[in-house]
Amino acid sequence: MIFFPPMNQANHLHLLNSIFGHKSFRGLQERIVLHLHKGEDCLVLMPTSAGKSLCYQIPALMRDGVGIIISPLIALMKDQVDNLNEMGIKARALNSSLPFNEVLEVQRELREGKLDLLYVAPEKLANSSFFSLLKTLNIALFAIDEAHCISEWGHDFRPSYLQLGVLKDEFPEVPMIALTATADKQTRKEILDKLKIPEKNLFLSSFDRPNISYEIVEKKRPKEQLLSFLRENKGESGIIYCMSRKKVEDLALWLSEKGLKALPYHAGLDEGLRARNQNTFIKEEEVIMVATVAFGMGIDKPNVRFVAHMDLPKSLEAYYQETGRAGRDGLPSKAWMTYGLDSVVYLKKLMENSDADHGRKLVEKKKCDQLISYCESFQCRRQRLLEYFDEPFKGPCKNCDNCWTTQESVDATLWSKMALSAVFRTGESFGVHHLVSLLRGETNEKVRQFNHQNLSVFGIGKMNSSHVWKSLFRKLIAENYLSVDSEGFGALSISPKGALILKENEKVFLKIKDASKKGQTAIGSDPHKKEVDFKDDFQKKLFDDLRAFRLKLSKERGVAPYHIFIDKTLMEMADKKPQSMKDLRNLHGVGNFKLRRYGKLFVDFLSDSARLQ
Length: 613
Ligand code: ZN
Hints:
Elements: H1 12-18, H2 29-37, E1 42-45, H3 54-62, E2 66-70, H4 74-85, E3 91-94, H5 100-111, E4 117-120, H6 128-136, E5 139-144, H7 159-162, H8 166-170, E6 176-180, H9 185-195, E7 202-204, E8 212-218, H10 222-232, E9 237-241, H11 245-257, E10 262-265, H12 271-283, E11 288-291, E12 304-309, H13 316-323, E13 333-339, H14 341-353, H15 358-376, H16 381-388, H17 401-404, E14 407-411, H18 413-425, H19 432-439, H20 445-449, H21 466-478, E15 482-484, E16 492-494, H22 496-503, E17 509-513, H23 537-557, H24 561-564, H25 567-576, H26 581-585, H27 592-612
Parallel strand pairs: 1-6, 1-7, 2-4, 2-5, 3-4, 5-6, 8-13, 9-11, 9-12, 10-11, 12-13
Antiparallel strand pairs: 14-17, 15-16
The protein binds zinc ion.
């Protein structure tokens, strides 16, 4: 049981400092804590890294009884429980991975009122004997994490979340908090409705993640592009997302051959190997995880320094969520993605072939268009992303590729007419590569096979490189001037919207990034400026030494390095070089329990380092 003085309303600040080692609450945290402490329900929308879990952990400690946290993934539960135990909080998890004798033990601890927090999977609540046990307990609150899983329209839908609606009927007196790091208006409404939370009890934070830089590069040689990105981020942990399992395995192997510590992760891997790879990612430094979207939810590793996408995510919401796994500790981090014609064509085909019903198909199509338009946009990425969440943002952010690079806008109406004519003259049966060859007047085998060298459009587009033509086709497909056939051969046809360019002279503008000016930066600043800053080489060296010391300690104790101290704490140590327990206690993230457990070890390490200077 927690060993701090009796709780009262005023001591939420005391708990914050003594357990978590934070000096003050951030953003909406304090209001939410007090709201729950009063016994009210709420929905909290807060981006990753804004400190969502404190919002329920502190009121659960302040109120009588055990806080029940419903969490979708076993990995997440384990990580959170380990982290809380390292702070001296009595937390346990109850899930299918637990041996029977431990289940009995947790149940006993619950009955005896010995637990502060209990993490359970949503499926557990469908279990009638567990539900009966809950009925006999004194419950401080219910916290529903990743609450967007309740949305039947969302990409993370979990049917078991739907039954959480009964909690309010069965436990009307127990306050409930639902939390998510992503939810557009529709999802937000679904969560409120299904969990019976009044709309006025919505706490909406800014969705901005200022420490993450956004960059989308045009796909040319994606593996080499990725490799050079990874070389810029040498020694850092990160996640690389690929669409298919095969791509995951190929890429992980290729990166390993290049000498990088890259591991594969997807749902088809052997369960043991999957768990081992995940564990290595969590507990080691400098590991790169190459994964499908099966990986990530529930990974609380705070120092993931980059998230790279080799393929497009499913929606802008998914992009926000996946990139949001970078930089939970608030330190500068990167979201990087390659994007090209093949991604657009693939996504459009997927939409066409979807066997969802009409209503769902419309929603999917809209989400797909929003994502593609985000990739095509030359507006500040952060501004576009936040607009998606209905949040006004006064750009430019100076921390995205569109803010860094100069762009040139050209009137491409005539070129678009040429492109559409080429589609029309060839009977709307060919894909982009052939059409580009045709426009550029290249007499290859396929051109000769269909006698296309005799068409009036043959060679009319010699003035542009194939790269410019491909960009234009991508734009015409992305903006629905051209449709992609659903049979899967990638043949293009002119849509009703495309006909407007031919008949009504609708204007099309193509923006071309001026690569020659990269680095001069139009409105932004140097992208490399957002690296983690150190005063001098000595400070950087001390930070690296502290990190190595932490890794050694974590291995000895069998915990994740960040459960000992997060990078931000180590950076403060490298900066302030505390020489006493009292000085160490003043740093961010050093609570009483951690001070007792690790304080002396780090103070000794720092004084040894000082002697060696
Ligand atoms: Zn920007």
